[in-house]
Write a structure and sequence with these properties.
By secondary structure, the protein is an alpha+beta fold. It folds into five domains: 33-240, 3-Layer(aba) Sandwich (Aminopeptidase); 260-352, no CATH class; 357-421, SH3 Domains (SH3 type barrels), CATH 2.30.30; 434-493, SH3 type barrels (Roll); 499-625, endopeptidase fold (from Nostoc punctiforme). The chain has 13 helices and 35 strands. The strands form eleven sheets. Strands 6-5-7-10-8-9 form a six-stranded mixed β-sheet, with helices on both faces. It has a six-stranded antiparallel β-sheet with strand order 30-35-31-32-33-34. A five-stranded antiparallel β-sheet has the order 19-18-17-14-20. Helix 3 (147-163) runs antiparallel to helix 5 (211-240) and helix 6 crosses helix 8 (324-336). The relative contact order is 0.10. InterPro entries: MurNAc-LAA_cat, NLP_P60_dom, Papain-like_cys_pep_sf, Peptidase_C40, SH3_16.
């Protein structure tokens, strides 16, 4: 679905959203395993190969790069449908390494033993035909130039001609030889979807989604596999001596879901390699603590508290956590290891007993956070005046609150140190224009430490000598005042031009670029590469991996409260065992931009939004603001 949403998107109730003037759509995703057993080599022409000058029509760097992006994009469609796909190159080396030995690509073909080799070779030649889609096949080899290869070429040209605007002519051309493609006895087609010297095609390619080309090629290959799987399998055995294990089912089969239980079983065995089940509370507690420290991305971010009681029928296990996946995994580990459980339950926080006021702000100059609901017991961190916290639970007498701070630390703090708020007041405090103390400042014996951040009570003039700041609650030493005045040089004001907004603008320039695991270039990135590059372009370094990025910045959103998100906030997602596996950038409101196969795309947390992603909505766990 393509949505002509030009202008502002993702507008939230607090008015923060990112401008995006581009058509948005949900990328195509194969939903059945119709290509299972199909082995394909995709060869993006160019990239430093010496044969580039021997292309039937001249090619250039821009064509070479486009070949690579289409090939990468196509590979995700094919893999999603169950095919095995091999690319002959993953990067663009034309300007750095010079000519490439063609034998490297031929070695990839021999190792893959494919059913078909497809070379993508967009032309960039003023002498070549315009408004044309062409396929080249070799006529010098009896096996490679048989009717099977011709049928494959015809299907590819037909699909592409219907996808590329203005492709008035289509042709399959038999050449005496194709020196620019990997030599192989497998059916081999060199496909020319367009000519960049044709101004109309170049303009279209610059704006159209890569999916326009890759989807057409995918459909042609899917039809080829359905029609000629047996012939392709026979040819593969002739060429490489390899039999095809699977051929298409008469009716498409649904893509098998990832098995959460299999992942848990593997994890359990890695945590407890002993050939017997953990049978005592101490042994099970050891295993689950090992899971918390080893398998979770960071054990200060995720709460995992266990209570284990021994009964005559077995062990009673209670797990308290801020992520259902973690609780389910903890119980699953115990069961996978064969621990005799008489009862097992997961208590998901925040606790219902907190009511609607599940948020707070620190209202004293400083307050320690403890590992247990009592002082002088396992200190975790310290809160400063004005620090926002998410509340997860409270003691029965209400004297301590279990909090999740903006630094992501979890622990217990005295309830009289926290001014409790409802959601709307909390969001207002979290996102209000603010000032941060850059040096210690004292007012009537109350010390304001460096890093204390308080909202502005009124706008500060450029030449102001003092600024007025809001207090979360009156401090006795300061009287009943709800504001204080401090010297202008004692604080740093938050910037009106936010870095996050600029990061979003950079990320948006890569919409539609293919997913490349480990990639960080404009030809393809992975999820954390997109996020880190967007900030690196502005001079700010973020860690490379999502599991590291989740530790940077202040916490501004949780799974159960996301309304304070602003453009550029980093979003994090977990798998079924609680590991952080994915990241993206908020656009403000419910929408976000992220790199997920097959391409950089915009998705939404809102079920009413056409861009809604149920998968990522369920997997979301935290949002952070790297810079404020």
């Amino acid at each position: 679905m393509v949505l002509p949403l030009l202008g502002w998107i993702g507008l939230s109730s607090n008015g923060y959203a990112a401008p995006l003037r581009q058509e948005l759509r949900k990328p195509f995703e194969a939903t059945s395993q119709t290509l299972r057993g199909f082995v394909i080599v995709v060869d993006p022409a160019g990239g430093g190969e010496a044969a580039g000058r021997r292309h039937p029509t001249h090619t250039t760097a821009r064509a070479s790069q486009y070949n690579l992006m289409v090939a990468t994009h196509l590979s995700h469609h094919l893999k999603g449908a169950g095919a095995s796909v091999y690319l002959t190159r993953m990067d663009d080396r034309a300007t750095t390494l010079g000519a490439e030995d063609r034998s490297e690509r031929e070695a990839i073909v021999r190792g893959a033993a494919p059913h078909i080799v497809l070379t993508l070779a967009h032309a960039d030649d003023p002498k070549a035909p315009k408004n044309s889609v062409r396929a080249f096949i070799a006529a010098d080899n009896k096996i490679a130039s048989d009717p099977l290869t011709a049928r494959a070429a015809t299907l590819l040209v037909k699909e592409l001609a219907s996808a590329v605007p203005g492709a008035n002519t289509r042709s399959v051309i038999a050449m005496p030889s194709l020196p620019e493609v990997p030599r192989s006895l497998a059916p081999t087609v060199m496909l020319e979807p367009g000519n960049f010297s044709d101004a109309a095609f170049a303009s279209w390619a610059a704006k159209a989604p890569l999916e326009s080309v890759s989807r057409a090629i995918y459909e042609a290959l899917a039809r080829l596999w359905q029609q000629d799987a047996e012939a392709l399998a026979f040819r593969r055995e002739q060429a490489f001596g390899v039999q095809t294990v699977e051929t298409p089912a008469k009716s498409p089969t649904a893509r098998p879901p990832e098995s959460a239980s299999t992942n848990v079983e593997k994890l359990a065995r890695s945590l407890w390699p002993i050939d017997r089940a953990p049978a005592t509370p101490a042994e099970l507690r050891f295993v689950l603590d090992h899971y918390r420290r080893r398998a979770l991305s960071d054990w200060t971010l995720f709460l995992l508290e266990t209570t284990i009681e021994e009964t005559s029928q077995g062990l009673n296990l209670t797990v308290r956590t801020n992520a259902q996946e973690i609780g389910d995994t903890a119980v699953g580990i115990a069961r996978a290891l064969g621990t005799p459980l008489s009862d097992a339950r997961v208590e998901l926080l925040p606790s219902p007993r907190l009511g609607e006021r599940r948020f707070g702000v620190t209202c004293v100059p400083m307050a320690f956070v403890w590992g247990q609901p009592r002082e002088l017991d396992d200190v975790q961190t310290q809160l400063l005046l004005g620090d926002c916290v998410w509340l997860l639970d409270e003691t029965p007498d209400g004297s301590y609150l279990l909090v999740h701070g903006t630094d992501s630390y979890l622990g217990w703090v005295r309830s009289d140190a926290i001014q409790r708020l409802d959601a709307s007041r909390f969001d207002e405090w979290l996102n209000a224009p603010a000032a941060t103390f850059v040096r210690e400042h004292e007012v009537r014996g109350v010390r304001f430490s460096p890093a204390v951040r308080l909202p502005l009570a009124s706008p500060a003039a450029a030449d102001a000598k003092v600024v007025r700041l809001r207090l979360p609650a009156p401090i006795p030493a300061l009287g009943e005042k709800s504001t204080i005045e401090v010297p202008r040089d004692a604080v740093r004001l938050s910037s009106e031009i936010r870095v996050g907004q600029k990061a979003i603008e950079i990320a948006q320039t890569l919409l539609g670029r293919p997913y490349v695991f480990g990639g960080r270039s404009s030809l393809g990135t992975d999820c954390s590469g997109l996020v880190s590059d967007a900030y690196a372009a502005l001079g700010h370094t973020l860690p490379r991996d999502a599991r590291q990025q989740v530790l940077v910045g202040k916490l501004v959103a949780t799974r159960w409260h996301r309304t304070a998100l602003r453009p550029g906030d980093t979003l994090f997602f977990i798998d079924t065992t609680g590991r952080v596996i994915h990241t993206g950038l908020s656009l403000g409101g419910s929408r976000f931009i992220h790199q997920c196969p097959p391409e950089v795309q915009v998705s939404s947390f809102d079920p009413a939004d056409p861009l809604y992603s149920k998968t990522w909505d369920r997997a979301f766990i935290f949002g952070r603001r790297p810079l404020d």
